[in-house]
Amino acid sequence: DPTWLSTNLGILTCIECSGIHREMGVHISRIQSLELDKLGTSELLLAKNVGNNSFNEIMEGNLPSPSPKPSPSSDMTARKEYITAKYIEHKFCRRLCSSGAEKQGELLEAVKSRDLLALIQVYAEGVEILEPLLESGQEPGETALHFAVRTADHTSLPLVDFLVQNCGNLDKPTGKGNTALHYCCIYNKPECLKLLLRGKPSIDLVNQLGETAYDMAKRLKAAQCEELLSQAVAGKLNPHIHVEYDWNLRLEEIDESDDDLDDKPSPIKKERSPRPQSFCHSSSISPQDKLSLPGFSTPRDKQRLSYGAFTNQIFMSTSTDSPTSPITDGPPLPPRNAGKVAPGSTLALPVSTQSPSGSSTLSKKKAPPPPPGHKRTLSDPPSPLPHSKGSVSWGNDTGHSPGERSLNKFERLTHSAR
């Protein structure tokens, strides 16, 4: 697979042929690796707009038969002979112009119509790109590069880039001494200036007014051009520069990251539940996600969620209780029928209840100790004894243990019989 790019021609080549391209020199082919080198968008303009098929239709439009084009199994000698004939001698290209004047006319027409392939055609036929155009421009002595910069927009940047990389001299002035750099500042073309500065032209050249391109950008308040030139003067300009250009990428050519895909709304609309959703039982959480949530219990064994099971930022605290502890995590709920007494039944008196005669009818019986880890709740009665006098009897929801309740009933009957 071809993994090497000729940035000034907009074609790809294999690693074997890339070495021959390097030997020809950067004025013929400027080779960069797609895998090893760092490329900016400015270096991809021609690759996007030319390509091997379009380039070969021009440069191989007049191949003899049998074709001398090497195959993948050809040796390096055969490859070098063919590459030299194709790229240096332009031996196999179509010839459409019969004179130099006709070539100059086609060059002007290609620049005016912004036709990149027509420009490559006259380039292949050997047109002098730096010759002044036949049609007089804004200034006498304008070249194709001057004209392309002056009339450039975002759609014509590939054509400007081809002229920049293949004209051979970026410092050619007009009759007034203005180079292509001056033109970028006069007509405020920062994107063209980026392409020119990548080719490292002379920045300190002055025109007839004694102004450099930087002086002109400063005087005309072309802020972007001024900033780019100041970076170039200081040697801080990034050679792999980004240019503003409409790439017209198809949807399948866009490589989206996982984050971008996650941010996109799902085409499947989820129905909302008519009632509010709880934290763990939201219908938008899959069963697998539910099982991974802390404190989640299946419907088969529903129980109260432990607040200490959540360790995220919502609750800001963690519980040291073991998740396998048999002790309930929260206080027990009070009975629904608390305070209701069946007809004909008698409530047990508290321990401290006095008889009508004023003497206590019951002796204090110690209740069994509370289970370990039991916590007092608001539903429990107040302690009848100070904490310093023995253990405290917690009792059940009515204030007494079942044993005490039976004993009180028996003794009341005995007392009434007396």
TrEMBL record:
<feature type="compositionally biased region" description="Polar residues">
    <location>
        <begin position="275"/>
        <end position="289"/>
    </location>
</feature>
<dbReference type="InterPro" id="IPR043593">
    <property type="entry name" value="ASAP"/>
</dbReference>
<dbReference type="InterPro" id="IPR036770">
    <property type="entry name" value="Ankyrin_rpt-contain_sf"/>
</dbReference>
<keyword id="KW-0479">Metal-binding</keyword>
<keyword id="KW-0862">Zinc</keyword>
<dbReference type="InterPro" id="IPR037278">
    <property type="entry name" value="ARFGAP/RecO"/>
</dbReference>
<feature type="compositionally biased region" description="Low complexity">
    <location>
        <begin position="352"/>
        <end position="362"/>
    </location>
</feature>
<feature type="repeat" description="ANK">
    <location>
        <begin position="176"/>
        <end position="208"/>
    </location>
</feature>
<feature type="compositionally biased region" description="Polar residues">
    <location>
        <begin position="390"/>
        <end position="399"/>
    </location>
</feature>
<dbReference type="Pfam" id="PF12796">
    <property type="entry name" value="Ank_2"/>
</dbReference>
<feature type="compositionally biased region" description="Basic and acidic residues">
    <location>
        <begin position="263"/>
        <end position="274"/>
    </location>
</feature>
<dbReference type="InterPro" id="IPR001164">
    <property type="entry name" value="ArfGAP_dom"/>
</dbReference>
<feature type="region of interest" description="Disordered">
    <location>
        <begin position="316"/>
        <end position="418"/>
    </location>
</feature>
<dbReference type="GO" id="GO:0002102">
    <property type="term" value="C:podosome"/>
</dbReference>
<keyword id="KW-0040">ANK repeat</keyword>
<dbReference type="GO" id="GO:1903527">
    <property type="term" value="P:positive regulation of membrane tubulation"/>
</dbReference>
<keyword id="KW-0863">Zinc-finger</keyword>
<feature type="compositionally biased region" description="Low complexity">
    <location>
        <begin position="317"/>
        <end position="328"/>
    </location>
</feature>
<dbReference type="Pfam" id="PF01412">
    <property type="entry name" value="ArfGap"/>
</dbReference>
<feature type="region of interest" description="Disordered">
    <location>
        <begin position="257"/>
        <end position="302"/>
    </location>
</feature>
<dbReference type="InterPro" id="IPR038508">
    <property type="entry name" value="ArfGAP_dom_sf"/>
</dbReference>
<dbReference type="GO" id="GO:0060271">
    <property type="term" value="P:cilium assembly"/>
</dbReference>
<dbReference type="GO" id="GO:0008270">
    <property type="term" value="F:zinc ion binding"/>
</dbReference>
<feature type="domain" description="Arf-GAP">
    <location>
        <begin position="1"/>
        <end position="103"/>
    </location>
</feature>
<dbReference type="GO" id="GO:0005096">
    <property type="term" value="F:GTPase activator activity"/>
</dbReference>
<feature type="region of interest" description="Disordered">
    <location>
        <begin position="57"/>
        <end position="76"/>
    </location>
</feature>
<dbReference type="InterPro" id="IPR002110">
    <property type="entry name" value="Ankyrin_rpt"/>
</dbReference>
<feature type="compositionally biased region" description="Basic and acidic residues">
    <location>
        <begin position="402"/>
        <end position="418"/>
    </location>
</feature>
<protein>
    <recommendedName>
        <fullName>Arf-GAP domain-containing protein</fullName>
    </recommendedName>
</protein>
